[in-house]
Amino acid sequence: MVVVLTLIAGFRVRSGLARLAETIADAAGDTSGPVWLAPDEACDLVFDAVDPSTGEQVARAVIGDAAVDVIVQPLAGRRKRLLIADLESTIIENEMLDELADFAGLRPQISEITRRAMNGEVDFAAALDARVALLGGMDDRVLERAAQRMRVAAGARQLVRTMRSAGAATALVSGGFTIFAKPVAAELGFDHVVANRLNLEGGHIAGTVRRPLVTAETKRQTLLRLAGKHDIPLRQTVAVGDGANDMPMLTTAGLGIAFHAKPRVAATVRSRIDHADLTALLFAQGYRKDEFVG
Questions:
Q1: Whose CB has fewer CB within 10 Å in the chain, the N or C terminal residue?
Q2: Residue 105, by phi and psi: left (phi above 0), alpha (psi -120 to 50) or beta?
Q3: Can you name the residues that pair with 200 across neighbouring β-strands?
Q4: Measuring CA to CA, which residue among 12, 25, 42 is closest to residue 281?
Q5: Exposed, middle or buried, 141 (CB in 10 Å: 0-12/13-18/19+)?
């Protein structure tokens, strides 16, 4: 099998990536040397391997503690035709229930529930209901104030716009709320958006979420449904997320990437990005930096 190993540097190590790449190429048996996607930032190493994980083990041994990400996959079909992305702590930097909790003076309590839910320590649906119940009775104008805090993650615009310009379909799938997901989806250009709906009553947050909930299985089923709708084989799909409720879609997609993920997710999902921004997903697909859009 012809395998491509992509190295993507964090900002602190870009001056040393060429040296690491040459060392890894020699150790992995790649005699052609690195193919640069962006000078001192990202490169490909291509080699034959019976087991792709062998090349990854070699690379990680050479890299050690350096802030360099490694993605290993078959060379054939690496450019994907469907992107499924989580919203919170992925496409945006925030966790929006935590932001809402700020206005009620409840951030420590709600943030701890969020942390445990995203690491798979508690049931996602129960954790969502518990957090929303704590916010019941708040003036619904706080939703607009919280939305103003949303920070689009570095590389998100380039990721979505570059893949769309190449003809890929894109979907934002969130266990959070449509009131936050839809504006982000519109701004970045996602084709589809799936999220939960927060119940409002008489100008206040009701403290409940409309059923059915968007759960981990919903995210996986959305991936399967959209792949079928657009006639895209699963091997030509890419999914990205950070939390335990993203794991089913990450392990189902052709390329599932745990992005700055919670410990359990990072330990479970085969491919992960720990240091770079979301443009790492473009480098992983073989896009050169001069091909990025937006």
A1: N
A2: left
A3: 205
A4: 42
A5: exposed
pLDDT-based confidence at residue 29 (cuts at 50, 70, 90): confident
Cα distance between residue 11 and residue 263, in whole Å: 22
Residues 58-87 as b/e (b if ≥16 CB within 10 A, e otherwise) read bbeebbeeebbbbbbbeeeebebbbbbbbb
Q: Of all residues in the chain, what percent are helix, strand and coil, respectively (each to 5)? A: 45, 25, 30
Check pLDDT > 80 for residue 50: no
For the stretch 107-133, pLDDT in tens is 999 999 999 999 999 999 999 999 999
pTM metric for this prediction: 0.95
Show the DSSP H helices in the chain as ranges: 17-28, 52-63, 96-103, 107-118, 124-134, 142-147, 156-165, 178-188, 216-229, 247-252, 263-268, 280-284
Neighbour tally for 280: CB within 10 Å: 26
Task: Answer yes or no: are the C-beta atoms of 252 and 220 closer than 8 Å.
Answer: yes
In this structure, the chain runs to a length of 294
CB atoms within 10 A of CB 109: 14
Assess contact for 45 and 25: CB atoms under 8 A: yes
Residue of 140, 142, 131 whose CA lies nearest to 106 = 131
CA distances from 96 to 34, 119, 130, 215, 222 (A): 41, 17, 15, 16, 22
pLDDT value at residue 10 = 84
**Looking up tokens 């992995």, which residue turns up?**
28
How far is it, in rounded angstroms, from Cα 276 to Cα 292? 15
Give CA–CA dist 4/35, Å, rounded: 10
Domains of the chain plus CATH, in order, are: 1-76 (3.30.70.270), 80-294 (3.40.50.1000)
